[in-house]
Amino acid sequence: MLVGLVVGLLRRGRRGPDTAAPPEQRRPEPGVDYRPGVGDDAEEPRDTLVRDVETVRLPDSVTEPPAVEDVPVAPEVERPAPAAGRLARLRARLARSNTALGRGLLQLLSRDTVDEATWEEIEETLIAADLGTGPSLEIVERLRTRIGVDGGGDPRAVLRDELLRAVDPTLDRSLAVAPTATEAGVHRPAVVLVVGVNGVGKTTTVGKLARVLVAEDKDVVLGAADTFRAAAAEQLSTWGERVGVPTVRSDVEGADPASVAFDAVKAGADLGADVVLVDTAGRLQNKRDLMDELGKVKRVVERHGPVDEVLLVLDATTGQNGLNQARVFAEAVDITGIVLTKLDGTAKGGIVVAVQRELGVPVKLVGLGEGADDLAPFEPDAFVDAILEPAG
Ligand SMILES: Nc1nc2c(ncn2[C@@H]2O[C@H](COP(=O)(O)OP(=O)(O)O)[C@@H](O)[C@H]2O)c(=O)[nH]1
Ligand SMILES: [Mg+2]
């Protein structure tokens, strides 16, 4: 409110007569810069009402308005919209991938004669979009057979078919987020561990995913197991508060991440929650330490029961480097799904194919922006369509 006020004042100041402004920037004034005409006042009219100062008695007792702090403010809990179909709605965010990959390939394939040099260009375009050498060669081979040799078919339809095949629509991309009951009949929330190196978008993804689940009427608990910086827990609980989801955190910087994760799952079980999302740290002195710590977090959480989902978050703009990270993480924990963030900022949408091949694990979610609801379930059809068709 204060910010709004200040901005308002500044604006008004700018709009008012500014005598300090150089003459060429002043608004022309009637009587000074031109002869006053109809509708202008040459000077302050003489009959302008002037108010005298009046003395008014104040009432003896003035009831104080309640202090702002005393007024109970109902926390505004947001109700996010369901995530189904988001990728199609956010297709414009893939504009860069679209231009580089989809349109580039279509232009090449639509040439009158697709000669050897053109096939090479097609291959280069695929590799440049980070699909990886293996998948790129495969796609070119299949396209050659279907278009080059058969000479038939609509190039667009054939290309769509082959890209879709590379992305693999048969993979199960659902998230394991259903609670279970143990043999002893104890309620056990689904546990999702979110891992990845620093800055890829883990905390943001946990926050956005909490919103997706809340939109599906799930009870969610967040665990702030990135205990490196107090700010990390703060960032996570802010996401949680917006949708009325509790965050289990330690206020001690450098607390044991495994015990925070353990407590979060315990709180989830006690509260009868459906899902516990655990955010982890991606920053440690070295790779070995990071992997040891992750392994420990997972083992400690598993005292409550199995971890249902380990999501590896990768920044789509980092290309080969992202693939190297994927390999290292896969050694430390069993990855069950990939989240590719920042797909809105890259022409290299082909990384979806490369990373799935590398890990043998499906991309389950994609990040398409910094907004709270810019996380979309990955849908192969919608993805390929977005790449091939200019967003309308
Ligand atoms: N453009 C874009 N930015 C993102 C996306 N996901 C996360 N970010 C940004 O990446 C930065 C790092 O995110 P954060 O969640 O703190 O990363 P963490 O260190 O892995 O937890 C933040 O500025 C996020 O807003 C995305 O899908 N698109
Ligand atoms: Mg973080």
UniProtKB/TrEMBL annotation:
Amino-acid positions noted as binding GTP in the UniProt annotation, renumbered to this chain: 196-203, 279-283, 341-344
Sequence segments annotated as region (Disordered): 11-52
Keyword Heme belongs to the record: no
E.C. number: 3.6.5.4
Lineage top rank: taxon: Bacteria
Cited InterPro entries: AAA+_ATPase, P-loop_NTPase, Signal_recog_particl_SRP54_hlx, SR_rcpt_FtsY, SRP/SRP_N, SRP54_GTPase_dom, SRP54_N_sf
Annotated localization: Cell membrane; Cytoplasm
Classification via SUPFAM superfamilies: Domain of the SRP/SRP receptor G-proteins (SSF47364), P-loop containing nucleoside triphosphate hydrolases (SSF52540)
Domain SRP54-type proteins GTP-binding: residue ranges: 362-375
Alphabetical keyword list: Cell membrane, Cytoplasm, GTP-binding, Hydrolase, Membrane, Nucleotide-binding, Receptor
Gene3D superfamilies: P-loop containing nucleotide triphosphate hydrolases, Signal recognition particle SRP54, nucleotide-binding domain
Main location: membrane
Catalysed reactions, as listed in the record: GTP + H2O = GDP + phosphate + H(+)
Topology of the protein relative to the lipid bilayer: Peripheral membrane protein
One Pfam family named in its UniProt record: SRP54_N
Bilayer-spanning residue ranges: none
Subunit structure: Part of the signal recognition particle protein translocation system, which is composed of SRP and FtsY.
Family assignment from sequence similarity: Belongs to the GTP-binding SRP family. FtsY subfamily.
NCBIfam families per record: ftsY
Classification via HAMAP family: FtsY
Physiological role: Involved in targeting and insertion of nascent membrane proteins into the cytoplasmic membrane. Acts as a receptor for the complex formed by the signal recognition particle (SRP) and the ribosome-nascent chain (RNC).
Annotated protein name in UniProt: Signal recognition particle receptor FtsY
Organism of this sequence: Aquipuribacter nitratireducens
